[in-house]
Specification:
This protein is mainly α. Helix content is about 70%, strand content about 0%. Helix 1 packs across helix 8, helix 4 packs antiparallel against helix 5 and helix 5 packs antiparallel against helix 6.
């Protein structure tokens, strides 16, 4: 397979695991609200994060909060110097990887995130004073670059999460880095990515998960949008009516 096809597969899994986990988390929240319970939000547009540190505040919030409160802080957090802070970050993420299963791929996945978190902490320790940052338009452009970089770092880590072994994960990554046929990414994958990014952007700008039914500026296009989304879900369900695809995170 060429690099473009491998990259398309990586993007597909990156959005599959997000849609899978965030989708049934929202279903659980919606059913709970119908029964009179209000459970915590578990995802907050994680692929719009500007750093991996921010990503872990937005992704699987129930787990990341537990890891912070009962592992990272219990190990000493950032109260015992920089080197101990870096060690605590790495131990927390490796143990978080092992929470998903006793496999070297999960250990490597956790270690990768731990390393990136440490590097981000080092960069923050040496950052420029606030007055040296560029003007507003420059900050927006910088934010876009940060989001794209963070997204691809997280996506790269998903290779380790999904692969059956670390050597196979390295082979997959090496295949992407050949950069042959890099533009042969599947159009449906790009379309799904565009839809999910658009929905997350709308949620971020509106500050509400239910913006589609609450935003007054949508006006007459509200119901056509809802119908289009429902038809998309129905079409996907009919296309895979003969297959049973369990939720990815049910295995954990």
């Amino acid at each position: 397979m060429c690099s473009g096809e491998l990259l398309g597969g990586l993007y597909a899994f990156t959005f599959q695991i997000y849609g899978d986990f965030a989708g049934y988390s929202d279903i659980a929240r919606g059913v709970s609200r119908m029964l009179g319970f209000n459970i915590m939000e578990n995802f907050n547009a994680p692929y719009l994060s500007r750093s991996v540190t921010e990503f872990w505040r937005r992704w699987h919030i129930s787990l990341s909060t537990w890891l912070r409160d009962y592992l990272y802080i219990s190990l000493g957090g950032n109260r015992r110097g920089r080197l101990r802070t870096y060690l605590n970050l790495m131990l927390t993420m490796v143990l978080g990887g092992l929470w998903h299963g006793a496999a070297w791929t999960f250990v490597a996945w956790g270690a990768f995130h731990g390393l990136v978190l440490i590097l981000h902490r080092i960069m923050l320790n040496g950052r420029k004073p606030p007055g040296m940052w560029p003007r507003a338009w420059g900050r927006r452009a910088t934010d876009v670059v940060k989001v794209l970089l963070t997204f691809h770092l997280v996506a790269t880590a998903w290779i380790l999460f999904r692969a059956p072994s670390v050597p196979l994960a390295m082979q997959y990554l090496a295949g992407i880095l050949r950069f042959d046929g890099i533009f042969r990414i599947s159009a449906p994958v790009l379309f799904a990515a565009a839809v999910m990014f658009t929905l997350d952007l709308a949620q971020t700008w509106s500050g509400s998960h239910t913006w589609l039914v609450e935003e007054p500026r949508l006006g007459v296009i509200r119901y056509p949008l809802i119908q289009m989304l429902l038809l998309s879900v129905l079409g996907a369900a009919i296309a895979h009516i003969d297959t049973v695809t369990p939720f990815i995170y049910f295995q954990f």
